[in-house]
Amino acid sequence: MKLGDGVEQAIHCVAILAALPKDGLLPAAALAEFHGVSTSYLLKHLQTLSRAELVQSVPGPTGGYRLARAPEDITLLDIVLAVEGPEPAFRCKEIRQRGPNPLPGYMFKAPCQINRVMLRAEKAYREELRQVTIADLAAQVRTDDTEGLIEARGCAFFDAAMRHYAP
Amino acid sequence: MKLGDGVEQAIHCVAILAALPKDGLLPAAALAEFHGVSTSYLLKHLQTLSRAELVQSVPGPTGGYRLARAPEDITLLDIVLAVEGPEPAFRCKEIRQRGPNPLPGYMFKAPCQINRVMLRAEKAYREELRQVTIADLAAQVRTDDTEGLIEARGCAFFDAAMRHYAP
DNA sequence: GCTGCCCTACTCGGATAAAGGATGTCCGAGTATCTATGG
DNA sequence: CCATAGATACTCGGACATCCTTTATCCGAGTAGGGCAGC
C-alpha cells in the first residue's frame, strides 16, 4: 500500500498547467525546476499523462505541455489511475482454490468474499478522488492564498518559462 | 498503488483460524500447504500478525497459531494495516515548497490541498475495511456454502493438522 | 528588399541502467513429547 | 510399577540472499525558428 512519488508530481504539474492561460504552454524542464525534482523522471510521468490524454504535448523548440481538457473535466482519480495503473491494488489470487486437494472450480462461482470487500473499499477510495476536480483544487488554493503570494510566485515563474500555443 | 500478496494470505489465514474451535491451533506449515503458498514466506506475515497481537503464537512441538481475540473484534483494517504498515499510501513530500526560490515556510501553514484530498480518500478506504470483521466474513461464507462442501473440506483439513491449546 | 531553403537548437519520446523494497530462504532459540533409567 | 531426568524432534523467531518493480538516466526522432543565399 504505497503510492509512488510520481503521483504527487503529476498532480502538482496538472494543477500548475490548469493555472496558466488557455494558450499557455510549459516545457517539462520548467515544471521540474519549479518543483525541484528530476527532469527526466518527471518527463516519464508527463508522457504517461499524455498517453492518457490528460495533457497534450507540443513538440519542437517552443513546445511543452498543456492541459488536454478543461480543469473541470479532470479529476484526481484520472491522474492517479493514469500514473499508477487502472488495475485495483488488491488482486485476488484465489488462493482458496489452491492447496493439496482443491475443490472443483465450479464450487467457487461465488466471488471470494475477501476480494469483494477489498474492492468495495477501493471503490470508495476512488469515488472520493473522482469527486474532486483540478478546478476544485485551484479554487481551494485561491481561497487559502489570501495575500496572493503563492499566485505571485506562480506568475513570476510563468513569465520566465511560459510559451504560447499556436494551433 | 499495489498491495502485496501477503495481505491476501494473511486475511485467509485469519479467516481459517477463526473457523476452528476455541482451543484450536494450527501450525504455519499446515496453513501454507492448505493455501499452496511458501511456508517460510507465510511465516513472515504470521509473525507480523503476532506482533500486532491479532494472532497468538504457541511455541513447541504441538504449537501453532490461534486468534488472539474474538473474530468479532478483528477487522480487515487491522490485518491490512498490520501487514502493509500503518502509514498512509500517499505521503506528501511538500514539493510545492521546493524549487529555485521557495517562499518562506510559514506561507504554507495551510496543509497542502492535494494531501488533504488524498488522505480523505484513504480515510474512506479504511473506513470501509474497518466495518468488516472476520466474523462477518465467516458468516458470508457460510451463507454462500449452501451444500457445505467448503466447510467439509475445512473439517478434513483440520482433522489432519489441528492441535489443541492447553493454557 | 523579399522569399525560399537549409541548418541549428531545443523539445518530447522511448529504450536503457541503478536502487530500493518485496519476496523467498536459511539457521538459531525454545518447549512439549517420548524414552530410558532409577527408585 | 511409577516418577523423574534427559534427549529429541518439532515449533516459532529473526537475520540473510535473491528477484522484481520502481526510480532515475541517457540517447534518438521530430519540429519551429533563425540565418543565409538567391531572386
From TrEMBL, chains A, B:
GO terms for molecular function: DNA-binding transcription factor activity. GO terms for cellular component: cytosol. PROSITE patterns: HTH_RRF2_2. Gene3D superfamilies: Winged helix-like DNA-binding domain superfamily/Winged helix DNA-binding domain. SUPFAM superfamilies: Winged helix' DNA-binding domain. Transmembrane segments: none annotated. This is BadM/Rrf2 family transcriptional regulator.
